[in-house]
Amino acid sequence: MADRRIGILIIPGTMGSVLKQEGKKVWPINYGSYEHYANTLTPVSKEVEPARLLITYQRLKLALQHNFPTVTEFIYDWRVNNIDHISLLKGKISSMDVDEVYIVAHSMGGIISKLCLNEYKDDPEIKKVKKLITLGTPWKGSMESVRTLLYGSRVPDKYLKFIDKEAAKKVCKHFPSVYQLLPTNDFLSRLKAIDCVPYFLNDRYFDEFDDFFQGVMHEEFSENHSFDGVFNDYYKLLNEDISDDIELHEIIGVGKPTIKIICENTRKEPYVYYDEGDGTVPLLSAYSNLSERENYFAYFVNGASHNGMPYKGEILTLIKDIIRGNEFHQNDSIFNDLDSAYYKKFSGYISKIACPVDISIRDNDGNIIYGNIETIDSDEIRDLMQTDYEVDDIGSTTYVIFNDNDETSINNFNGLVIDAYDKGLTSISLEKYEDGQITERKAFKAFEIDVDLQAEFLLKEETEQSSLVLKKDGEIQKTLELDDVAIDEGQVKLPSTSIDFLGEHLKYLDEKEVYIGKDSITLHVTDIVAGDFEPKQTHILINDVEYIIEDGSLNLDANILAHGKNEIEYFTIDEYDYTEKKKKVILYYFHNVASKVEFLFKDQFYLVHLTEDAVYSRVASVYGLQGIKPDYNFKNTEGVAGYQVVYHGIDREVEIKYVDFFGEEASFHFIIDEQIAKKIVKGSAAVSDVEKFVEKLNLEDVKYQFRIKQKVGNHKVLNDIHLNKCHALEISSETSFVQIIKNVELDVSFETSSEHISINSDIENYDFIFKVLDIDQQYVLDLELTSRFTFTIDEGPQKENREIVENFDVEYLPGSGSYKLVLALKNLKELLSGYWKPENKILGIAKLEIISVKNSASIRSMNIKIAQ
C-alpha cells in the first residue's frame, strides 16, 4: 500500500446529507413540522444544497481520517432520482488525486455507487475504484419504503424526532428515491420460493412488482412522477454486475427482526411478518451471495442496526481491515458464513398490539421509559433514555420487540401500558422466537377499549404467567390471561357470516346476484358459524364506511346508502381477533327513479318533461329493468302537442304520472299561469308575479338563479334588479326545475324612482323618470307610453284582497330622451281614502307597470309599498 496513493470516499445513505436552502438548514430539523418539510423539500424540483454529512457518519469519517491520509465524502440530494447522482459521483471520483479509490457506502449510497460504476465502467477515472465496501445496502429493496409510503415512518425512530410518521408519509411521496427502494421482483421471487406471499393489500394478494405497483402505488405516484423515468434506467444499471476488477465487500446486519411481508386485515389494519436483517433491510436484500465471484466478500454482524452501522466500533475496525487488505477472522460479533456457530439469530418475543392506541413501556422499576414519560425533570429523562427498547409503529398496529441477545430482553421490562386515543376492538398477542423462528404464539381475548379504559400488560419471566389488567379510573375492571393460539395463522378456521335484506321495495336479481331497492331496507345477520373460536364482533362496510352490528340488524335508508351502486361488505371477528375474509354484495338503491320535472319557457311555447333519473336509466339498461313511461294529462289540451305547449293565456293544469320498477305509482300536479309566464319571458313581470307563478306551480323551498350577461358571481335573490337585468331565470325545488328564457324587445332603466311611498309625506309629487332601451341596449325615443298602478288592499282576515287599478299619463322629455311619470300624492290619498285604516302602517302593495300604447304590452313592472 506504501507505493500506492489510496483515497477513501464515504457515501451516506438516504436522508444522510444535511440539506440547505438559501444558506439555511432545512434537513434535519428537530421536531420539524410537515408544513416546514412540505414548503422546503417539495416539490422535488425545488432546489436544495447538500451541505455536509449527517453527524451519524462523523465517527466513521474520523476513524478513517485517523488512519488514512485522503478521506472525503460525496454528499447529495437524497430526494431525487438516484440516476441524477451518477455523473456528479463520477466527477467526485475524477477529482480525487489518488491512484486508487475505495468507496465506503452506507445503505442507498451503495446503490448510487453501483449505478455510477456500471454506467461509466469503461471510463479511466472510474477504473481507479478498486474496492466497494457497502453497509446494509438494500440491493433488492426494502419493505421500509412500502411502510413509509403507505403508513409513514418516524425519523429517527427513538428519542429525538426529525419528522413524524404522518409528515413522512405525505412528503416522501414526492421523492423518486423512496420509490426506487421498493422491493424488487427479485425480492418478491425469493419470498415466493419459500411459499410466502409478499403483500395482501386492498383485499388482494400481490407477488409481482408490476401488479403491486399498479394496484397499490400507481395512483399517488403518477401525480408526481413518470414510471419509465424513475425505474427504467435505474433497474437497468442496478441489475448489471459490477466489474470483476472491483472488490465487493458487503457488511450486513443480522439478528434484528426486519419486515419481509406487509399485509392488511379485513379492517385495513396493517400487520407484518419479520425475517432476519438489520431492522430496516432484510438479509435477503443486503446479501448478494455472489459465491461464484472471486473478489466478493460478505460479513455478517450480529445485532447491528441499520442506522447504527456507520458508528458501531466492530464495523469501523472491519472497514479499516478491509482497506488495508488484512485477513479476516470470524468472532462473536462478525462472521462470514451463515452456517457459522457465531450466528445469533433473533431469539426473544414480539408483542403485537392492534388498535388505535398509544403504547408506553415500563422498566422493572416501574418507570415509563417509552411513550408517555411522566416526568419533566431533564436529568431524570436522560436517565430513563439510557434504557434501550425496540418499537415498530405500522399504521394503527404497534410491535414491541424483546431481544434476548441485547438489553431489550423481556426480562428487563415490567410491562406495557396501553392508552386509547379512540374507541375500538383491541387485540394483543405475544410471539416467541427461537433461533429466528416462531415457536409459540399466545394471545389475550380481544376487548373493546376506549379513552376511559387503560390496559396494562404485566410481563413475567415465565411469559405464560403474564396477564392483562383492564382499569377504569384506577379500578381493575377485568383481568385476562394469555391463551395458546396457532403458530401458523393460516391453519386457523375463521368464522363465517350470512346476511339477508328485507324491504317493501326490494328485489333480488338471481342471475345478476344484485339487489335493487328503494325506501327503507333492513340488513339482517341471519347466521354466524363459529370457526375455531367464538365470534366476537360483526362489521358491515357500506361504501367503505364501517358499521358494527350490535343486535343483528341494521336499518338502511337514503342517509346511509348512496344513490345508485352500493358495495356492502361484511365479516366477523372472533375472540382472538382472527378475521373472516370479506364477503360482498351489491345493492342498487334509488333515492328516486325519475329526475325532476323540467319546464322550459320560451317566447312562443314551453315544454313540460319528466325523464328517468340518469343513474336509474343506466342500471335499468344493464339489468333489463322496466323503464318509467310518464303519462301527461293536460286538462285543457288546446295548443298541446306531446309535452310541448303553445301559450293561450290560461291557467293550465297538468298531471304527470308514472309507474316505477317496483310497481309503485307516482304523480305530480301543476297549475301553469301562462299569462305570468309570458310576462316573465317578455321582461315585464314584477317580483310579485314570479312569487305568484311559483305558488301556482305548487313548488316549495325554491331556489333562484338569475343569469345576467357580463356579470360575474351568483345572483340568487329574487328582487327587481336581478329580475329585470337577467336574460334567463332558473327556479329549482326538490321535484322540479324551471328555466325561463327571456326575449325582451324593450326594457326600462329608471333614473329616479321610489319603491316606498309615504302617504303622510310633505312631498306633493313622486316622480318616476326613466329611459327605454331596445334589445341592443340602444335608447328608444319618443314612444307613446302610459302606466298602470294596481293597488292591492288587505280587507282583513277571511276576506279576499281588493284590487284597485288606476292609469297615469307618461310624458316624453325630448331634451334628455327620458320619460316622466308623475304620481300626485293628493290624487293618491283621494283614491285610497276609503280604504285607509290609521292603525295600519302599511296600506298595501302597488304594482307599477309601464305600458306601450301601440300594442298594450307591459314592458316593465315593479312593486311599490304604500305606507303611512
TrEMBL record:
Signal peptide boundaries: none
GO annotation terms (biological process): lipid metabolic process
Pfam families: LCAT
GO molecular function per UniProt: O-acyltransferase activity
Family matches, as Gene3D superfamilies: alpha/beta hydrolase
Keywords for the protein's UniProt record, in alphabetical order: Acyltransferase, Transferase
Superkingdom, natural source: Bacteria
Name recorded for this polypeptide: Acyltransferase
Protein's organism: Bacillus thuringiensis serovar mexicanensis
